[in-house]
Design a protein that fits this description.
Layout: E1 8-13, H1 20-31, E2 35-40, H2 50-57, H3 68-73, H4 76-81, E3 85-91, H5 93-100, H6 107-114, E4 119-123, H7 127-131, H8 133-144, E5 148-149, E6 153-156, E7 162-166, H9 170-179, E8 190-195, E9 200-201, E10 207-208, H10 215-226, E11 230-235, E12 246-250, H11 254-264, E13 270-273, E14 280-282, E15 305-307, H12 311-316, E16 323-330, H13 334-344, E17 349-354, E18 365-372, E19 375-383, H14 384-407
Parallel strand pairs: 1-2, 1-3, 3-4, 4-5, 8-11, 8-13, 11-12, 13-16, 16-17
Antiparallel strand pairs: 6-7, 9-10, 14-15, 17-18, 18-19
The structure holds cytidine-5'-triphosphate.
């Protein structure tokens, strides 16, 4: 099935040199299965003609708010009700400012104000405008109101400068737009996700932890929501906002993570263990801060660690267990070690992260090798959001098969 099959997309085009890319975007959106109607601002018509976009979209292009003939065919409120999503690409700094003020002084702004469909903006502007405090404040305000921003990226700009402000490519725009529509692959399924590092206290001021940022686990939780699941996210200490519609439980240590997972697992059908739980934790906690005078320079400081319980392995040993997906961070013999972990921990699936040479940690992009008994898939380098969606697709397919096998 095509990514945007049957979806109605209202494409808004603003006055920016990137408007020339909108012609191709109309075609790409239609190739992805969408029905497209185009609304242009007056300024946009200085860069590209309505006739071009009309020919490509197969529908009349609207520009003015007060156009009696066009209003008679489809009134602007009717047009605001028509789309499944409004995509403004390119979105200029001026348009973003007008939207942030809630203005309705041209047709496109009025439609964005009136529509109940999700609104996404793909900005394109000069780097100075993008970085200006006024634009940043407008973007913050709109983001809080639920407007999605696709890009921009850094690169050569039409004004001759280098920097952020370049509209993202059409392929990425379409991927991001498709992600706004929930699939029903996990409708009615409860998914538990663990994410982030754990922190193991040594004394009141010191702890042992690891380099996990939690980004992958949070992206997995967001992807599960998109797929229609009810999601509980158990998170170690991270600096990330909670994804929409996710129930979040915060923990600090491996012991707390263990208790939280054991408490919530029975009510969930799938558990995705993306957390980097400490395998070893300090044997004892010093109630008072350890003073360095207590240790000699020659002997140093020896910290005894004890093994922490393996959450996944324990769940795997239960008779009533969720569908279990583990993560493995490996620096060598990546596939061999991952495969051994899949079998040793009796998992239903494992996503293997190659973290050699600093890869995988605290990055926005990643790649994964996914293994399950009798199958494998390689998920190529991509943003963690997209990667999580692909992983969730594999999990949903495997879970359905597993579920059907166990109920027939
Ligand atoms: N995990 C867990 N409980 C722990 C440690 C890890 O549930 N106490 C989970 C992680 O969330 C991850 C998977 O187990 O999904 C793999 O963790 P990892 O530490 O890489 O595996 P180990 O089997 O401990 O092997 P090693 O550390 O030797 O690579």
């Amino acid at each position: 099935m095509k990514q945007l099959s049957g979806k109605r997309v209202l494409l808004g085009v603003c006055g920016s040199i990137a408007a020339y890319k909108s012609a191709e975007l109309v075609r790409d959106l239609r190739d992805a299965g969408a029905e497209v109607r185009v609304v242009m601002t007056e300024a946009a018509t200085e860069f590209i003609t309505p006739l071009t976009l009309q020919a490509l979209s197969g529908h009349p292009v609207r520009t003015g708010l007060v156009d009696t003939a066009a209003e008679a065919a489809m009134g602007h409120i009717e047009l605001a009700r028509w789309p499944d999503a409004v995509l403004v690409a390119p979105a200029s700094a001026d348009f973003i400012a007008r939207l942030a003020q809630g203005r309705a002084d041209d047709l496109l702004a009025a439609l964005c104000l009136a529509t109940r469909a999700p609104v996404a903006l793909a900005p394109a502007m000069n780097a100075g405008m993008w970085e200006n405090a006024a634009t940043r404040a407008n973007i913050d305000k709109l983001t809080r109101q639920g407007v999605a921003f696709f890009g921009p990226v850094s690169g050569a700009l039409a004004c001759g400068e280098q920097g952020p402000g370049r509209m993202i490519d059409n392929r990425t725009i379409i991927d991001k737009l498709a992600a706004l529509f929930p699939s029903a692959a996990l409708q009615g399924v409860a998914v538990l996700v663990s994410a982030g590092p754990t922190r193991e206290a040594i004394d009141p001021v010191r702890y042992l932890s690891n380099r996990s940022s939690g980004k992958m686990g949070f992206a997995v939780a967001a992807a599960a929501v998109e797929a229609g699941a009810q999601v509980t996210l158990i998170s170690g200490p991270v600096a990330l906002p909670t994804p929409e519609r996710v129930k979040r439980v915060d923990v600090i240590s491996a012991a707390q993570m263990y208790r939280a997972v054991m408490e919530h697992a029975p009510a969930h059908q799938i558990f995705v263990a993306a957390a980097a739980v400490a395998d070893f934790v300090p044997q004892a906690f010093a109630q008072q801060k350890l003073k360095k005078e207590k240790f000699s320079a020659e002997d140093g400081f020896v910290l005894r660690l004890k093994q922490s319980p393996d959450i996944l392995a324990e769940l795997a040993g239960r008779e009533q267990r969720p569908f279990l997906v583990g993560f493995a961070a490996e620096t060598e013999s990546v596939e061999q070690n991952g495969c051994a972990k899949l079998q040793r921990k009796k998992l239903d699936m494992i996503a293997i992260n190659d973290v050699s040479e600093g890869r995988g940690f605290d990055r926005d992009e990643n790649e994964l090798l996914v293994l399950w008994p009798g199958g494998r898939a390689r998920l190529e380098l991509a943003g963690k959001g997209r990667l999580a969606r692909e992983l969730m697709g594999l999990i949903a397919d495997r879970y359905r098969e597993h579920y059907e096998k166990n109920t027939t």
